Batch of 3 targets.
Target 1
Amino acid sequence: MQLSKQVWLIPGENPGQGYLCGTNVYVVGSGKSRVMIDACTKNVLKFLANIKEFCQTQQCTIDRILITHGHHDHYAGAFDIVELLIQNGFSTNPSVFKFVDEKLETDRNRLMEHPEIESYLFNTRDGDVFTVINAPGETPITLTCVETPGHIDDHLCFLLQQEGEDNMLFTGDHIIGADSSYFTNYPEYLRSLDKVRDLTIKLDIKKYFVAHSYTLTKDDIMLDGLAKVEELIASRKEKDYR
Ligand SMILES: [Zn+2]
């Protein structure tokens, strides 16, 4: 499903408790080589078939996969996708980028559970910029990593910027299409909410693309940025006050 000129949704096809409709996986760019955001979980055949169909109908490759964080519904499917891209000739050398910190328990677990991904995995961190070349005549996109710990220590959001277009943010599980997200570190989570609010104001970010939503309608997937983050901050303050 096309959400904007340069952003497509590939549903993760993994609905369930805690996942709402499943993982919303995004593909960015209108050129030949595109960037995927998040990888869903392992062995979801319908999701993998959707990626294959997407690359065929769009006549594109996916060479880079950016991971918002190490929870299995965002990360564990990365190797399946890498294999699919190589086996179908969509990409010869796909790369997976994630904020890797081997001190983190999640990363140690993830690497032990999925050692096969290691040769495709590269570290990325706050401030790193990925450039996406669009179709001829269109300006390129940049995706910038924004460190947002709290939901989990290794969480990144990705800021989308393109000259002449609205700024957008892929919020992963930091901000989802529900009242609140689950968090492992509450003070960090609150600091990251403030960080995203300040960035939203500073850069006039219009929309958030969330990783989980109640439905797969555009209104549930693409939220009004400032209204959403302010609502979350206000509801946290109210709960803390009680
Ligand atoms: Zn998560």
Note: The chain has a mean pLDDT of 91.
Target 2
Amino acid sequence: MIHATKIVNEGGFLFMHREQHCPECNQLLEVAYMEEVVNSNSPEAKYYDFSMTGCRGVFVGNVLFRIRCFYCTSCEKVFRVEQIKEIEKGMTKKH
Ligand SMILES: [Zn+2]
């Protein structure tokens, strides 16, 4: 049972300011949402932010996180914002 849903708009800057291309096939990536259910009492909970946006409350129980990510329609792969950042860092190092 899901007690609450939290939408995580990761990587605001990356999403707003330019288009991202697939690191593998160079296809233009689409914005997608991946879903993960995390219980606030589970060991993984420390990696997630259970705070409510706009008020001081926190979510308790099974929370469905809808995490913004990139999707390649050609490879059918999902890239986390963190992955894209890592790949970009790697690219800048080469120059
Ligand atoms: Zn691709």
Note: Residues 29 and 72 are 5 Å apart (CA to CA).
Target 3
Amino acid sequence: MRQPSFLKRISNRSWHGCAVATLMLGLWLTPALVPDAAADETDPDVRQFILANTEFSVVHELIHLLIDEIGFPVLGREEDIADHLAIMLLLTRDHEGPLPQTTIDQLQAVIDAWRIEWTIIEQDQMEIAYSDPHSLEIQRLYDLSCLAYGRDPDNLKDFAIANEIPIDRAILCPEDFQKAEKGLNFLQNTFRTDNSGNQITITFDKTETPKETRYKKWLTDSPVIRSVIAQLDRQYRFPEPVEIVFRTCGQSNAYWEPADKQIVVCYGLMDRFVHLARFRQEYAIEPREWALGVARAKSAFQ
Ligand SMILES: [Zn+2]
């Protein structure tokens, strides 16, 4: 969907106005120490983090598009379905064999973003949005981690440990993945129609800052979004043409707007990911350092 959308809650939170503490490390980040978004978005690690999270956001919105335009059924909370199927599209993109490292890195960036958001919520003692249509960030990261681990448990034990999947959950993950793959195959086989493509266009509105221009170049250079879009474009027939628009819109958000047949991705969303990337670089952090149960997870897997 649709507003409220993927990251609406984030857009309502002030990053610069917060005193954020990394309790695990015993450090307080005063507002003066919070990194500036413009500081180093040219760093390759930051770029990878931003692109990975932006790409996941677009795929998540594409699931809302498939629900509204193609008729994918909603048999549960729509936002969970959008997350779930977006993850499965990425996990099954390469079909057989181990998950490519580039895909693992992409998923790890998304997991880390949610973990950092959750850390900020907890440490700033923000109100937890139990009534939100999305699952909590901490739940989204565990669901993503579990499905990824479940795809290839023999090769992804380190991934499971690094992301602190409790053993009680981990033992369910292979079956969860198999069921999710079966569900995805069912949807694809039921709704797929041969099509020549050219129904989904990508538009980059005029950028207003050098930073936005840089984001645009990264996106146009990146193959992931285009390949996922081309795949969906070939596989489904849409009632009307749809458009994915990247533009300046004064908020950190991405959303599907059915009335306009548009997925809108605000450049401000990428600003948010720059902030999170800096947080990860400066304070956070090897995933194994997170103190949410890594010791227990590690011992359980041994
Ligand atoms: Zn959504």
Note: Residues 1-39, 288-293 have pLDDT under 50 and may be disordered.
